[in-house]
């Protein structure tokens, strides 16, 4: 891999920054706020930032760069797809639980739903994320989509994945700012109490984490190399063109020749199918 040292440095930094952000979100809710509970009160609301930062930011970030880890390039693409899809599914579940927490809290306290820009963009991000997850499964994991469709969808998948991730970071920053403005009354946010400084730093870490992930995921030379796929999966002695059988036939009857041609046609079709299946498993 080109620039292996730099990749490793960025990866270690991203993991540290993301992990510290998760810890800071816990310190925020336990030290400065009401902790965590599931009773319709403020403790239930607090699941919202904690689960979003853990799942929707940190785990989603790792899911995005998992194909780029060079030591996984010897693992099968199918295994990596399961890991990528699995991490994204965990992120989705945590995001949904975090939304249930905030809606329940709002309803229990008679606070209106879906009035803020934060909630609009946040809900749109979750809806697009679930679409991305569904289409990812349908097109890249299940064995039905043909190779040309996979090839056409891939750039859209990568673009929309990165856009959703960036939007999630922006939404988290809006949410943090809103919460600080609502919660800090005496002393107010504008007088920079320790909680404000602490949570502003958490927001900075989220931006740094997002920037690191987006950088790593957008370097073409750190992309997982394409598989030596089709040939490797052809059966031993398989001859895609079917020429070998014909060229070794020197003195057979016309009927034998025709027979062999039919057999080699069947073999060619089988090989094309295998070839297509092999390519599908790698795209
Ligand atoms: C409310 C989504 C991150 C703070 C909401 C609501 C949604 C949402 C849909 C509306 C709930 C309702 O109307 O009952 C998201 C998404 C996030 C995210 C998708 C991830 C990017 C955060 C973070 C915080 C936060 C990190 C930090 C504390 C709030 C607050 C509300 C809220 C204070 C209530 C006020 C409002 O409705 O805007 N969020 N949120 N959010 N969220 Fe988030
Ligand atoms: C690649 C996002 C779900 C299959 C990518 C990339 C992103 C991304 C940003 C580019 C990674 C890179 O260039 O290294 C997402 C998001 C998902 C999701 C946000 C969920 C909401 C899925 C699912 C599958 C899938 C369910 C099914 C297996 C793939 C494949 C690649 C990919 C095959 C290409 C990897 C390569 O370049 O070698 N995804 N994805 N994705 N994703 Fe997803």
From TrEMBL:
Homodimer. Residues 231-256 are annotated as: Disordered. It comes from the Eukaryota. It is a multi-pass membrane protein. The keyword Transport applies. It is an enzyme of class 7 (translocase). Its cofactor is heme b. This is Plasma membrane ascorbate-dependent reductase CYBRD1. Residues 13-218 form the Cytochrome b561 domain. It catalyses: Fe(3+)(out) + L-ascorbate(in) = monodehydro-L-ascorbate radical(in) + Fe(2+)(out) + H(+); monodehydro-L-ascorbate radical(out) + L-ascorbate(in) = monodehydro-L-ascorbate radical(in) + L-ascorbate(out); Cu(2+)(out) + L-ascorbate(in) = Cu(+)(out) + monodehydro-L-ascorbate radical(in) + H(+). Pfam families: Cytochrom_B561. It is found in: Apical cell membrane. Keywords: Cell membrane, Electron transport, Heme, Iron, Membrane, Metal-binding, Oxidoreductase, Translocase, Transmembrane, Transmembrane helix, Transport. Its EC number is 7.2.1.3. GO terms for cellular component: apical plasma membrane; lysosomal membrane. GO terms for molecular function: metal ion binding; transmembrane ascorbate ferrireductase activity. The chain crosses the membrane at residues 7-30, 50-70, 82-103, 123-144, 156-176, 196-217.
């Amino acid at each position: 891999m080109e620039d292996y040292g730099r990749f490793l440095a960025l990866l270690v930094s991203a993991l540290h920054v993301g992990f510290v952000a998760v810890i800071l979100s816990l310190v925020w809710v336990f030290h400065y706020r009401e902790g965590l509970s599931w009773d319709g009160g403020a403790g239930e609301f607090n699941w919202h930032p904690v689960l979003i930062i853990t799942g929707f930011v940190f785990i989603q970030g790792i899911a995005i760069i998992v194909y780029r880890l060079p030591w996984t390039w010897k693992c099968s693409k199918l295994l990596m797809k399961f890991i990528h899809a699995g991490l994204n599914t965990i992120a989705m579940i945590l995001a949904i639980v975090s939304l249930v927490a905030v809606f329940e809290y709002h309803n229990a306290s008679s606070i209106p739903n879906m009035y803020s820009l934060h909630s609009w963009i946040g809900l749109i991000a979750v809806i697009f994320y679930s679409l991305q997850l569904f289409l990812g499964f349908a097109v890249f994991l299940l064995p039905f989509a043909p190779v040309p469709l996979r090839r056409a969808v891939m750039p859209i998948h990568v673009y929309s994945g990165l856009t959703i991730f960036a939007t999630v970071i922006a939404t988290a920053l809006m949410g943090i700012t809103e919460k600080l403005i609502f919660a800090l009354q005496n002393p107010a946010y504008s007088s920079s109490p320790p909680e404000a400084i602490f949570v502003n730093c958490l927001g900075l870490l989220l931006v740094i984490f997002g920037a690191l992930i987006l950088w790593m995921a957008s370097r073409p030379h750190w992309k997982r190399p394409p598989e030596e796929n089709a040939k490797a999966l052809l059966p031993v002695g398989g001859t895609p063109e079917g020429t070998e059988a014909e060229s070794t036939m020197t003195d057979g009857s016309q009927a034998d020749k025709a027979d062999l041609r039919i057999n080699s046609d069947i073999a060619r079709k089988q090989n094309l199918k295998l070839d297509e299946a092999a390519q599908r498993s790698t795209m």
